[in-house]
Design brief:
This protein is mainly alpha-helical. The chain is 73% helix and 4% strand. It starts with a helix and ends with a helix.
Amino acid sequence: MTDLILLVVGLAVGAIGTLVGAGGGFLLVPIMLFLYPDDLPSVITSTSLAVVLINAASGSAAYARQGRIDFKTGLVLGGLTVPGSILGAVATHAVERGPFTIIFSLVLIAIAALLFARPVARESAADTADAPGKWRRMLVDQRGQVYMYAYSVPKAAAACLVIGFISSLLGIGGGFILVPLFILAFGFPTYIATATSQFMLVVMAFSGTATHIAAGTFSESLSRTLILAPGVIIGSQLGAWLSRRMRPPVIARLLAVMMTLAAGRLLLGELL
């Protein structure tokens, strides 16, 4: 029965995680905490990161076909998350269950509030001539939609170093922070933010998962990951398909709602 639940969970996590570009770890972690209350945070996070890796790889393949991934940005900023991701994976062994859960919940609520209040940036071609000192980007997707935006590389790089650490520490892959950051702080169109975040998660989650494997933590997570994997792969393709049929504000606010619900469930579990 538990295996069937994990398979369904994998499908939901894959679909929703890919749809909002967050990898699904922010959903999987509270579910795993509920299903396995006696597990150490290191076991929970290693399972979640492995699932995020599978989801990100499958979802990125679908988004690449849609032409919505900014590969140059993804490679540059994704690489900068690696040092923090490795440190975060190591740090999970020093974190107790109570503080781990509370930190995770408070971060989710803070980001969700900001995202719900201001869900979108530019969604189509825009003038970036007045963006001195910023990296100007232009992308044309499969349907011919043109996206133009610009952002500060040093600021984005500094943010990604921190996100890499937080993502591995909490086992959520970092997408739930990356997407709001891209939209709110750096003016990425929502469609590009979700797709590029999904691509970056491949790099981020791989480094964190490799660290858990090297530390021997992942041996306890392998069987659950294999059960979750088929559902995640199918769900990620579904999520990418749905993203083309939903408006950007809906996607952004869905992310905010899912983050809030996950955080509320965790905080109640600690307080009651």
